[in-house]
Request: fold
Amino acid sequence: MTLPRPHRDDLLIAAGGLAIGLLLWYFGLHTQTDRLIHPRWATLVPLVVMAAMEALRRTLPQTALAVGTLALVADQFTYGSLVTALMFTDVVYAAVVYGSPASARRIPWSTGLITIGATTGFLVWWQNAAALLVGLITAMVSFLPAVTGAIVRNHREAAEAARLRAEQTALLAEMDRAQAVGAERARMARELHDMVANHLSAIAIHSTAALSLDDEATTRQALTVIRENSVEGLAEMRRLIGLLRDSSGDAEPAAAPTLAGLEALVAQARTNGRSSGLVFTLEDARDEDGPRLPAPVELAAYRIVQESLTNALKHAAPGEVRVELGRRRDGSLTVEVTSPFGGQPGPRAPGSGAGLVGMRERVALLDGTFEAGPLPAGDGGKMWRVRAVLPVGTKDKEPQAWYG
Reply:
């Protein structure tokens, strides 16, 4: 078994203690004048052993204390060295500070009992007050260093616990920050997609139509729609970029869209889809005098309708695209958009699938339900239906966006 390597500071302490002890021995400075072992060199044996234990005070604290105790007892049978006793106090201190938790709890109590026992024993033996001096010396050599070590160890453990708590707090804060950044990026991606995708889809469809059809009237109409959508999309982008760059807080936040703007949204889709044979209708079955919907619910419903109309412009076959709004008995808002499902005869804009993901995320943030998929139609064809149920009594989990 390989012994652990002594710490450099412990080696310096051991070397210093040994050097001072040898110097005192050389000049004949001892703690006692007459003992059982008379040769002066015998005093060096406990001194050297105690210095060796000082070198192990940090790596083998319990072993150092046990051997050091024997060395101190042996020192009492020689002329004695003050340095041996002083190094023993440091060994006791180190055993409490660097030893096991059980030893750190046991040593102060043990040294306290030894102090009391020694004082009581000498009082009974000598029958005079000199026994109290022996008890005081015993306490100074064993009990006080043990108590000091316990105090230092408690402070170190408290500091280490505080450091660990600080690291855990910093780690949790970093995790919260990363989650907040991820959630904000996802929210910005949804908003950017919903604001711009509708305009860009219309531009893609009508530009393809203008290039594929050699008709001046159709081309002029397509270019008109392209210009309108490009101007509106550019305005949306400029407003969003301006708000993202402005860190002073002086910019006035843009109002989030509400269901009151659905008429204009459907009218715009009607203009963009006229060349594709699409007819857009809006049926709002809500009670006009009913309770006002929370802003996050209105924003989510608006974006779901907007994205559904964009998808219809991209993929729907000629026919009716129907938008229906309603309220359930529990107050939840229902949003349903149906469109003809099948091959589009005209030009189509490519899709990425991000729109459905964004709609699902918006509904999930409000603890609602979302469905999207094909349904059989009454004339034997198929319809694509998007349906969302948005509760109004749940706590909003996503801060309201300041950009529309």
Q: What stands out?
A: Strands lie at 278-284, 319-327, 333-341, 369-376, 382-390. The longest helix spans residues 130-212. Confidence is low (pLDDT under 50) at residues 248-253, 394-404.
